[in-house]
Design a protein that fits this description.
The chain is α/β, with parallel strands linked by helices. The protein has helices at 25-38, 52-65, 86-100, 117-129, 143-152, 171-178, 201-208, 214-224, 236-243, 252-259, 274-282; strands at residues 3-5, 11-13, 16-18, 42-44, 74-79, 107-110, 136-139, 159-163, 183-187, 228-229.
């Protein structure tokens, strides 16, 4: 697997494993255990997912078994909107590392661009300078909001995690991030199963040339664009397929064929919808 060197010199696996929508503790623990066994070293969770403790249990078991060392792993979690303030971020960080059972985070991320994100970022910058966070990131910051933020803060975001898949390519967003040395990271790189992505004729036809599936083709397209990806599955076979994308390359023409699938908008979540924003401001993670 390729590594991406962040602007501060920290190396991050380009592909990781996400645990969104796996709230059941035992299912999540087993999924992370299987993912580590399959070769994933970047594990992405969040306070809102309510599974940090399950992720921590799987990590601790892998460490105790000698499967990996702490230095092998790149652990990411996220700050939710209710904690988006200076004091809130400090408390949320301590809560997350306690639940994960670790002393430091490889990456701490502002999950949504709502609340006092500047106060939260100042707290995160201090934790970063203390060596308790190796990289700082944001998520769901759209181009205008991201630009304002990156132009204002002292430590530029090392990563911005946004929706990126063949049906929502967002080349303009990626180029904008590059101006600030920020790596794009894809949530939902398989479009959460929409648009028949697993059997899509264009992706299937291209994949067949390499003995790969439509899903593997979609993931390969993103990494060839320099995007970090965090596909999620609770099935070991699918996990192994998702990480088996590092032995082939798409041609320029094939990349263009996949680019042509872009719809130019999300059909998963509209972050400009006031109802969506209000919803994100009212829900809270478990303590």
């Amino acid at each position: 697997m390729d590594m991406i060197r962040l602007s501060n010199g920290v190396e991050m696996p380009q592909e990781g494993f996400g645990v969104f929508q796996i709230p059941d503790a035992e299912v999540c623990r087993q999924a992370v255990t299987d993912a580590i066994g399959a070769g994933y070293r970047l594990i992405d969770t969040a306070a809102l997912y309510n599974n940090e403790e399950a992720v921590g249990t799987a990590v601790r078991e892998a460490l105790d078994a000698g499967t990996v060392t702490r230095g092998d792993l790149f652990l990411t979690t996220k700050l939710w909107t209710c904690d988006a303030s200076y004091d809130g971020a400090k408390k949320a960080f301590e809560r997350s590392v306690r639940k994960l059972g670790v002393d430091y985070l490889d990456m701490f991320m502002i999950h949504m661009p709502y609340g006092d994100v500047y106060g939260a970022w100042k707290a995160m910058e201090e934790l970063y300078e203390e060596g308790r966070i190796r990289a700082l990131a944001v998520s769901n910051f759209q181009p205008g909001r991201f630009t304002e933020f990156a132009e204002t803060v002292r430590v530029k975001p090392h990563v911005n995690q946004i929706e990126l898949h063949p049906f929502y390519a967002r080349y303009d967003s990626i180029e904008n991030m590059k101006q600030y040395g920020t790596v794009p990271q894809a949530w939902g790189p398989l479009a959460e199963g929409r648009h028949g992505i697993f059997t899509h004729p264009v992706l299937t036809a291209i994949g067949k040339r390499y003995g790969k599936t439509a899903a593997q083709t979609a993931l390969r397209w993103n990494v060839q664009r320099g995007v970090s990806i965090i596909p999620k599955s609770t099935h070991r076979e699918r996990m192994e397929q998702n990480i088996d994308i590092w032995d082939f390359s798409l041609t320029g023409e094939e990349m263009k064929e996949i680019d042509a699938l872009d719809l130019g908008h999300s059909e998963i979540v509209d972050h400009s919808d006031p109802k969506v924003v209000k919803f994100f401001l009212t829900i809270r993670p478990e303590e």
